[in-house]
Design a protein that fits this description.
Helix content of chain B: 55-70%
Strand order of the largest sheet of chain A: 8-7-2-1-21-22
CATH architecture of chain B: Up-down Bundle
Largest sheet of chain B: 2 strands, antiparallel
Oligomer: heterodimer
Low-confidence stretches of chain B: 1-5
Number of domains of chain A: 1
Structural class of chain B: mainly alpha
Number of strands of chain A: 22
CATH class of chain B: Mainly Alpha
CATH superfamily of chain A: Metallo-dependent phosphatases
Distance between the termini of chain B: 28 Å
Shape of chain A: globular
Helix content of chain A: 25-40%
Number of helices of chain A: 7
Number of helices of chain B: 21
Strand content of chain A: 25-35%
Radius of gyration of chain B: 24 Å
CATH superfamily of chain B: Amino acid/polyamine transporter I
Low-confidence stretches of chain A: 1-6
Number of strands of chain B: 6
CATH architecture of chain A: 4-Layer Sandwich
Number of domains of chain B: 1
């Protein structure tokens, strides 16, 4: 081993996932290439935010917004801008509206859905533009897929022909470098939350097969599947009762039950095809690295709400993961 | 300007949510029990080593000085509610080198001594009183002999190894098995503590000599045990009515800190606490549990003093310090042993002993759970070998980390009960004299975290500004900076006392060498790992360093 050397040969991949609309973590993600010296950036899905916060224009000219259960009141335009920045950093969307407009929108679920689609589409488009401008001339590419929390119509925004750095990779195979190929699949096994992109295990197996089967040898293939393999420690979380709304914890003997919430189809696919690397997310609290046979499986977890970009920096060469490192940037 | 709203004015879409398993109340209870209601040193070490000190005031002083440290943890926990823990707090704010060196030395290495202490507690305060009490009740000399064996070096080492081994086997077999046991342990501990308080409360002080004499006679000891003990202490030169000493009272605080410094331990579990990001809940969990435990420990001191008298506490302390031969079949007069002797009832004996046995055993679980988590995190950060974080396919637990920690604890278990070295002045220094070394070492970790809290607004600005604690300022200064600074000063005072006052046991050459070598080893490990990893293309600082968003 060479002490004090400059590092290993290969492609340096920075992988992060589950940023859930957080402006701050997306900006960090784009800067991660330069910061970590990565050649390639991979976003593993769940890029849409979960909450939109109306900044309600009040009769007296002031504005109010509810953040973390507290009503913030501001008056000047500069304060409104600062509030919008804070909301975006937390991963929420903001929309300035009058009292009447807010009441009408809140009463109409379709209007709320349309609002989310509009706000999320705008943000994804802006994020892609930011990637193009920040990575222009660097040769660094950013690959992004959606996850189960993302709407397909919003993810369609990623399919652009005018980009050089940004590459949409959902449900397709893309080359990461001269020798390695990545296939990405955003769907997950059913959750108690009934999110937009779920499928039963048979459906997932069919989706995986459509992507993976064409390769004769999976030795240099990377699986970028949003859900982690079942019972792999990348998927440990509390068991939930789906019959309540919102889902509640299952408690036995006074203690919450923890279990592996990952996908059996994904585990079977990894065990069968033995790709070189599995990139996963979905279960934010289950940061881990595990080996299933020759496959290194990674879930860097997510701390987007605190503005922390959790990720994994990997060096790949010759169909092998030669090094990896969890990061919290 | 902000106000709390009952109906949030937000739009929510259908998406997955994060669910955490531990309620604020559970975390509060976890902290109370981690602080170790059974830790006995304050009640015997202090009277023996610090004549004239006021136990109650010393305990309350420790509680008050710990409050600013606890408050710094409240701010840090709400700023980093997902990951949390001293290692994360320090490495993100102070840098990886400092974070690793302090936490690896003060926690990972020194807590091996807690594994040994847990075995000692189990043997001396769990099994010995159990068999002593049952021996007295049944008149069985075999049970009394067995009790005595548990106070010998061999008995303590064997018990400690078995204790650590059982904990390792339970935890490696799956966390759920520990969770099942934990409920039983908590209930048993609370019952034991309550039973002990009731016995001490309801025994008239005038009856104490007679009851102790009767118990001693029942186990084949002197029928005038009380009188003999007082005489032995006086013959040993122990002043039984010393004048009040302010210094001695102050020095009781670092000993009581052995318990109260653990008020912040729930921060290691932030990822599992439901409302970890909620400022008020963190105040309740950390500061609330500290105050409750401080008051309970002070209450025990009051009850103990009122029942057996301050004078006899000095006699008991003299026995522990070897100034006089004061023991019941080899067992020093710890509060639970006094309560067992006063009650002289097999059911009370079992209730108290069971709680102490399970609490002692729970401590070793706490050591393993906390430290293997830190080790796994350090391994994922590439500061410890990869095999440390490898998770067993079969058990879904980091078996390697558990086995390594168990093996590493074996020499410490042996040293704790058997090692002594010539002190160069005709005497010997035993490893047992380093008992409070673990309080000192964990103490410098807590001071490091208090400093991290003070620097949070400046060294991790964006993280701080996004946290609920950012709203609290005093004359324009972030309140976390003020409480963190006060906490660091309070902790530094404790550390200074440990390093300079021989009554606390850490001024021997052996103590300085062990403390220094552990720190140097940890720093050396970090530096060597840093350069070796760098040669493999890994910059370990990436694990902690914040990426500038702009």
């Amino acid at each position: 081993m060479r002490l004090f050397g400059k590092g290993q040969r290969g492609t340096k991949v920075f992988y992060a996932t589950d940023v859930h609309g957080s402006e701050r973590t997306w900006r960090k993600f784009l800067n991660a290439a330069k910061f970590y010296g990565a050649d390639v950036l991979v976003m593993g899905g769940d890029v849409m935010g979960k909450l939109a916060i109306p900044i309600i224009r009040e009769a007296g000219g002031s504005y109010r917004a509810t953040i973390h259960g507290r009503v913030e009141r501001v008056t000047s335009e500069a304060e409104v801008e600062a509030l919008r920045g804070l909301i975006g950093d937390l991963g929420f969307y903001d929309v300035v509206m009058d009292e009447d407009e807010y009441t009408a929108t809140q009463a109409d679920p379709d209007a709320v859905e349309r609002l989310f689609v509009r706000l999320a589409t705008e943000r994804v488009a802006r994020w892609i533009d930011l990637a193009e401008s920040r990575l222009a001339g660097t040769g660094i590419k950013v690959y992004a897929t959606g996850g189960n929390d993302d709407l397909t119509e919003v993810m369609a925004t990623m399919d652009r022909t005018d980009t050089r750095a940004f590459v949409a990779c959902e449900d397709r195979a893309v080359p990461l470098d001269d020798e390695h190929v990545m296939i990405s699949m955003p769907y997950v096994n059913p959750t108690p939350w009934k999110t937009p992109r779920e499928d039963d295990e048979a459906g997932l197996a069919a989706r995986i097969s459509a992507l993976a089967a064409p390769f004769a040898d999976h030795g240099k293939v990377i699986f970028n599947f949003h859900a982690p393999p079942v019972d792999s420690t990348l998927d440990t979380c509390p068991m939930l009762d789906a019959t309540t709304d919102p889902p509640s914890q299952v408690v036995k003997g006074g203690q919450p039950v923890l279990y592996g919430a990952g996908s059996t189809s994904i585990r079977e696919a990894i065990e069968r095809y033995q790709p070189m690397l599995g990139l996963h997310g979905h279960i934010h609290e289950s940061q881990a690295v595990a080996r299933l046979g020759r496959t290194v499986c990674v879930n860097p977890g997510s701390e987007y709400g605190e503005g922390v970009l959790r990720g994994c920096l990997l060096t790949i060469a010759g169909g092998k993961v030669t090094s990896y490192q969890m990061t919290a940037g | 300007m902000a106000a709390v709203t009952t109906v949030p004015e937000v739009f929510v879409r259908k998406s997955s949510g994060l669910v955490r398993v531990m309620s604020a109340r559970s975390a509060f209870v976890y902290n109370v029990l981690t602080m170790g209601l059974i830790f006995p040193w304050t009640y015997l070490w202090a009277p023996g080593a610090l004549p004239g000190g006021q136990l109650v005031w010393g305990i309350l002083l420790a509680m008050v000085l710990e409050i600013p440290i606890a408050l710094a943890y409240v701010w840090l926990s709400t700023a980093l509610p997902r990951s949390g823990g001293d290692y994360v707090f320090q490495s993100r704010v102070l840098g990886g080198g400092i974070g690793f060196t302090l936490v690896f030395s003060g926690f990972v290495i020194w807590i091996l001594q807690w594994v040994a202490l847990s075995g000692w507690l189990l043997s001396s305060l769990g099994f010995a009183p159990l068999f002593l009490g049952l021996g007295a009740a049944t008149g069985s000399t075999a049970l009394v002999d067995l009790a005595s064996w548990f106070t010998t070096g061999t008995g303590i080492v064997v018990t400690s190894i078995a204790n650590a081994l059982v904990a390792m086997l339970i935890l490696t077999s799956g966390f759920k098995n520990y969770v099942r046991l934990q409920r039983v342990m908590w209930v048993a501990i609370l019952v034991a503590f309550a039973t002990m308080l009731v016995v001490l409360f309801t025994t008239a002080s005038a009856d104490v000599p007679g009851k102790l004499d009767a118990f001693s006679a029942a186990i084949g000891g002197s029928p005038t045990f009380y009188q003999d003990s007082v005489a032995a202490a006086q013959a040993g030169g122990v002043e039984l009515n010393p004048a009040f000493s302010l210094l001695a009272t102050l020095l009781i605080a670092p000993i009581a800190w052995t318990s109260l410094q653990w008020a912040t331990y729930s921060a290691q579990q932030n990822g599992e606490i439901k409302s970890a990001g909620n400022f008020r809940d963190q105040l309740f969990i950390i500061v609330g549990s500290l105050i409750l435990t401080g008051l309970l420990l002070a209450l025990l001191a009051v009850v103990l003093q009122n029942t057996i008298g301050t004078e006899f506490l000095y006699v008991a302390g003299a026995g522990y310090w070897g100034a006089a031969d004061v023991s019941l079949a080899g067992s020093y007069l710890w509060p639970n042993i006094i309560a067992t002797a006063l009650a002289n009832n097999p059911i009370v004996t079992i209730l108290i002993a069971l709680g102490f046995i399970l609490n002692a055993h729970q401590i070793v679980h706490n050591c393993y759970i906390g430290m293997t988590r830190v080790m796994v995190a350090m391994s994922l950060d590439r500061l410890l070998p990869e095999m440390v974080s490898r998770v067993s396919d079969r058990f879904h637990t980091p078996v390697n980390a558990h086995v390594i920690y168990f093996l590493a604890s074996l020499p410490v278990i042996y040293l704790y009960s058997n090692y002594s070295v010539d002190d160069g002045a005709g005497g010997t220094t035993t490893w047992t004299s380093l008992t409070l070394g673990v309080t000192f070492a964990c103490g410098y970790v807590f001071v490091g975290t208090a400093i991290a809290g003070a620097l949070l607004p400046f060294r991790a600005k964006s993280l701080y500004e996004a946290s609920p604690g950012a709203a609290y300022k005093f004359m324009g200064m972030p309140l976390v900076t003020i409480v963190g600074t006060l906490g660091a000063i309070a902790g530094a005072i404790f550390l200074y006392l440990f390093l300079t006052k021989e009554e606390l046991g850490l001024t021997s050459d052996l103590a300085y060498q062990v403390v220094g070598l552990v720190l140097l080893f940890s720093l050396g490990w970090y530096l060597v790992t840093y350069f070796v990893r760098r040669s493999a293309g890994i910059n370990v600082n990436y694990a902690f360093k914040e990426i500038p968003p702009e």
